[in-house]
Amino acid sequence: MAVTLSTNDTPSDGPSGGPARPLPWTQKGFVQRTRDGSATVDFVFSGIDGFVRHRTGRHAALLAHYGFLSVFPLLAVMTTVLGFVLENAKGIRTRIVDSAFSNLPFIGEQIQSDPSQIHGNALVLVAGLATALWAGTKCFVAAQNGMNDIWEVPEQDRPNLAKSRGRALIAICFVGLAQIASATVTGIVAISGVSWLNRILLVLAAIAINIGVLLEAYRVLTARPLNRRQLLPGAIGAGIGFSVLQLIGTTIVQRAIRSSTAVYGNFATVIALLSWLTMHAVVALLGVEANAALDRRQGRDARTPAH
Question: How many domains is the chain built from?
């Protein structure tokens, strides 16, 4: 008679093939006794075990890589759009030179020195949008792979090429819009002159936006059927982390751009941007790991007979 084992306790060769065997040291001696005595400690060790087994750090690096690749085509798009806007519009040109656009990395110096040299180009616009869309799609496909590895979804149960790209495009739409809204809110918070009460309300609004978008992203990008209750704890933690990173990142980048030199400022901006994207990717996937660890804990509790 065949016996079907739970997905929480079936060993496998690796993340893409389904559930993997826990790390031996997390289930031996003092560590196991400590885990048995505290649900919090058990959750922490389960998360560490999952982070290593699911290669979450590698998935985060891949997410940051494709996110970074999508930034520069978007800068090219912004530059060519500015070229169209600045053409034969001296009044707008003067306002843009005096605005925050002149502090943008890579193109800010050109805006300050001679904005008339920035021209619109339809070919650059189309190529930039296409490249940004490609990189963004690859980024969210990598996110799907990471989340499916964390939830230990077997390879045969994962979406095919067309479905995974479709899910990625859906995620690009609502995640992109939500992140623009959240970044705008946190950017306003970083501006001096805003009252403390309004700052607190804006921060809470940014956190709520981040939690909501992460909750839906976790659901859409994971092949395993999951309800929002299973995904909410990680979404709350990652949403708060996102808001902190956005607030700190906005402040640091603004100061770095103002104080950077023409030569080394661009290098510092690239390093800061890549680090910032990596931290976002790690925080997002840690939220998934937290949800998976809680689910494993609940699965073990359900199988343990009551005394």
Answer: 1
What is the Cα–Cα distance from 127 to 121, expressed in whole angstroms?
A: 10
170-174, 206-210, 267-271, 277-281 — which is least confidently predicted?
A: 267-271
Within its chain, how far is the Cα of 55 from the centroid?
A: 16
204 within domain boundaries: yes
- Residue 264 included in any domain: yes
Is residue 248, in this structure, part of any structural domain at all? Answer: yes
Q: According to the model, what pLDDT value does residue 58 have?
A: 94
In 3D, which of 191, 231, 201 has the Cα closest to residue 215?
Answer: 231
Higher pLDDT pick, 22 / 219:
219
What's the whole-model pTM score? 0.76
Output b/e per residue, 239-252; b: 16+ Cβ within 10 A.
bbbbbbbbbebbee
User: What is the DSSP secondary structure assignment for residue 304, as one 8-state letter?
Assistant: S
CB of 235 within 8 A of CB of 175? no
Domain that holds residue 214: 41-150+158-301
